[in-house]
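Exercise 7b. Backbone tokens:
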């Protein structure tokens, strides 16, 4: 699908699989390019991915897909002819869509690089399975260029007790250099609003091979200095039960990177994905195309200041007919590299937020300092059932 308008617009695509209570969303791609990078692609029993590539040109093009293992081994490229304006969905389990090493199961997870001689756009979907049933899903847009500094405003790590996980996140980073290893530093910080016992932070380094991707799972560990460390995040344990309800991550690198954050709510069978964003993505105004507060659904905005100075921002909510805001709230001063959350459910319980709200939001400040992501929550009575979808805000 292509959207054209006589003014600037922002768009997300949201998908619901009603019979499976699975939902996902992604932000539209405004600038297709001749390269696309997918840092998170799975081919395993309980974690599966597909990705769709669209030829954004009227001229047909060959596309070339190379799968990279986490150690940097390339498989492919696999070629495919895309007629002008067409799209195709690729499944790594399909031998016609993937190189032999991927099809036979040698490759189970990593990053994919897609090149073409015409501009293309790509989106990847990731699915979580349990007992052979698809339980949750997430979706994200491919990136065409990288950043040496990346931010994530919503990182989860929490337990209800010493053994029962409630929320967790995984960061995935792909090195866009085809020849040089990336030396990366990851800095995880709790929100200032998290409990005092949960204020421990974690900073570590890693080496990522050319074109490859590495993962950092707040429950299961992650890569550190080029090898996997299963105990990496245990320093955050804090007496067996601690909750980061949306901490932050800041990644720096000597090579351009792209990245995603996938989050899971295990007891509710809900998961979601959004992209990491860089200072180049920051704006003084960020648009969130879908927001809601209904009897069965609500939304959350995660706002991060990626500048080096404290800023104050205001969130304006608009209904579907546009015009003036139906509700506005000015947030507390936000220090450099810190994040804050605005939840429509909380606003409706305390602050006169409009009932039965469906619309959009805009976050504004006086400097190009903000990035934002949003989660869309649905409870079991919603059409399509119990699910969460997430997307990145669009700078204006």
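Sequence design result:
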């Amino acid at each position: 699908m292509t959207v054209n308008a006589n003014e600037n617009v922002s768009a997300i695509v949201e998908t619901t699989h009603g019979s499976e209570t699975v939902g996902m969303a992604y932000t539209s791609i405004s600038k297709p390019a001749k390269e696309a990078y997918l840092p998170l692609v799975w081919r395993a029993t309980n974690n599966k991915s597909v990705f769709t590539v669209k030829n954004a040109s009227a001229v047909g093009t060959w596309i070339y897909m190379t799968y990279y293992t986490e150690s940097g081994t390339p498989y492919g490229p696999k070629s495919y002819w895309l007629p002008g304006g067409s799209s195709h969905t690729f499944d790594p389990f399909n031998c016609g869509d993937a190189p032999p090493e991927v099809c036979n199961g040698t490759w189970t997870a990593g990053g994919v690089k897609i090149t073409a001689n015409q501009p293309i756009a790509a989106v990847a979907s990731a699915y979580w399975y349990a007992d052979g049933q698809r339980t949750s899903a997430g979706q994200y847009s491919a990136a065409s260029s990288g950043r040496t500094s990346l931010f994530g405003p919503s990182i989860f790590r929490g337990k209800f007790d010493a053994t029962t996980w409630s929320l967790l996140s995984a960061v995935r980073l792909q090195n866009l250099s085809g020849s040089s290893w990336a030396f990366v530093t990851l800095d995880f910080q709790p929100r200032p609003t998290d409990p005092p016992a949960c204020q421990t932070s974690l900073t570590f380094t890693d080496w990522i091979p050319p074109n490859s991707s590495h993962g950092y799972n707040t429950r299961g560990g992650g890569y550190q200095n080029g090898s996997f460390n299963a105990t990496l995040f245990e320093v955050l344990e804090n007496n067996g039960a601690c909750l980061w309800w949306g901490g932050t991550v800041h990644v720096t690198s000597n090579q351009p990177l792209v990245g995603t954050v996938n989050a899971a709510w295990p007891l509710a069978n809900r998961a979601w994905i959004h992209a990491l964003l860089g200072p180049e993505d920051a704006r003084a105004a960020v648009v969130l195309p879908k927001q809601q507060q209904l009897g069965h659904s609500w939304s959350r905005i995660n706002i991060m200041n990626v500048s080096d100075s404290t800023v104050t921002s205001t969130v304006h909510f608009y209904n579907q007919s546009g015009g003036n805001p139906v509700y506005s709230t000015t947030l507390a001063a936000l220090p450099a590299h810190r994040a804050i959350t605005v939840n429509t459910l909380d606003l409706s319980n305390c602050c006169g937020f409009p009932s039965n709200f469906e619309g959009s939001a805009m976050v504004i400040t006086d400097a190009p300092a903000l990035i934002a992501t949003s989660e869309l929550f649905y409870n079991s009575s919603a059409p399509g059932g119990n699910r969460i979808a997430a997307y990145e805000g669009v700078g204006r």
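Instructor comment: Residues 1-10 have pLDDT under 50 and may be disordered. The longest strand covers residues 243-265.
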